[in-house]
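Reviewers of the previous submission asked for a worked example of the structure-prediction workflow described in the proposal, so we include one complete record here. The input consisted solely of the amino acid sequence. No template or homolog information was supplied to the procedure at any stage.
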Amino acid sequence: MIKTRFAPSPTGFLHIGGLRTALFAYLIAKKNGGDFLLRIEDTDRERFVDGGIENIIRSLQWAGIKIDEGVDMDTGNEIIQKGGSGPYIQSERLDIYIEYIQKLLDEGHAYHCFCSKEKLEEVRHEQEENKQPTIYDGTCRNMPESEVKIMLREEREHVVRMKMPTEGVTKFNDLIHGEIEFQNKLIDDQVILKSDGFPTYHLANVIDDYLMGITNVIRGDEWLPSVPKHIELYKMLGWKPPYFAHLSLLVNEKKQKLSKRHGDVSVQDFEEKGYLPEALINFVAFLGWNPGSEKEIFTLDELEKEFSFEKIGKSPSIFNREKLDWYNREYIKSMSNEEFANRVMPFFVNAGLKVESKKYKIESIIALEKERANTLVELVDEVAFIFAEKLEYEPTLLVWKKSTREDAKEKLEQVLQLLSQIDNNNWTKEGTQKIIMDWISEKSYNNGDVLWPMRVAISGKKNSPGPFEIADALGKDKTIERLETAVKLL
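From that input alone, the workflow returned the following structure tokens.
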């Protein structure tokens, strides 16, 4: 059975690149009837961020990615671990790593290194000046065992390094890039145990992937140069390596690597901006993958059936925000007003707009901008005028083109009179529209001379939805009140 994993470090909130890695790993597992595992790689204690684990899990849950095994959260938002291969948090697995470190040392596959940071910097600087590969020079690789024992007895600060072969090549077949080859002499004797007693990523992920039964390792291209080290560790430990698949780089519209330094954001930020999880997942799936057809809208279930390594590209994938906005608009437009109202309600609350009152027709309000809004936050911003106690605008805004203040005032007074006669129970977009438009036709008025001041009076905005849609959303009382205020301003 195929088992994939997502193994993030809790050094911050889940980035969009991490979501793509998790999604692709999840889809490959589900396509083949397998399991998806979440492991937390928290051995870098200096960069550990409180709340990072919770954010990773919550972001995956929000996106609809279900965790079959590993670290998860229960209904009470407590972190739990499920499965028979745990613990699934690396800082809880130190005894396991130490056991295998000792095995590698005993069998001559690893060695203690006592070189100081200053010594390493000096060597690196010299290599750079001589235009040589900047790798560890092997000072401690063949240190006599007697010297090693003395230094250990004296509790000298040290790390443990693996012994990479100094000859030959390491070949492997990447499921995306094909066959790749590295010269062993150019590969560093990687540190596998740091001086703080924590293993490095290289050792811990090899041990964990094997012990947890991971069959397919899916991660970013930046890890490609590390694969020979990992394959060598598998050999040293007598284990069969998993299949590897390395995803192309994510870049922004300027072709720069996607990073927070360039304003790119975490999954939580996209959620808070009002992107729907279905839209974000659909968009992220196309960052490197293509179904080979014209179809662009896929549910998560459909992606599970369609997804495959063969359709993943090797070139960098561009994170195009306009395309993300398009996806979000398409998903927004496809929802019923009732369902969409439930989705957008928390955003009204966050904006401090009290929409729970029965005096508001929430579905009519969201319908004002549903066809145009890119995000839920944008929609809330655009319809916030509905909830305003008092509109702020210049009286001159009420005057249409070549019309006059006097004419605008006269038209609004007549509109007021007509609308005041409509019963509250019969106040609808269609009802107000028929009365006003029939009256305009009867009087042979110019549409703009009537509808412009009416719309501005009830919205306070130069650009807004039509006056009849707004009147329906406002209800009779607030519409009449705003029209009266506009007449007084004129």
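Residues 3-90+250-318 form a domain with the Rossmann fold fold (CATH 3.40.50.620). We consider this example representative of the routine output the project will generate in years two and three.
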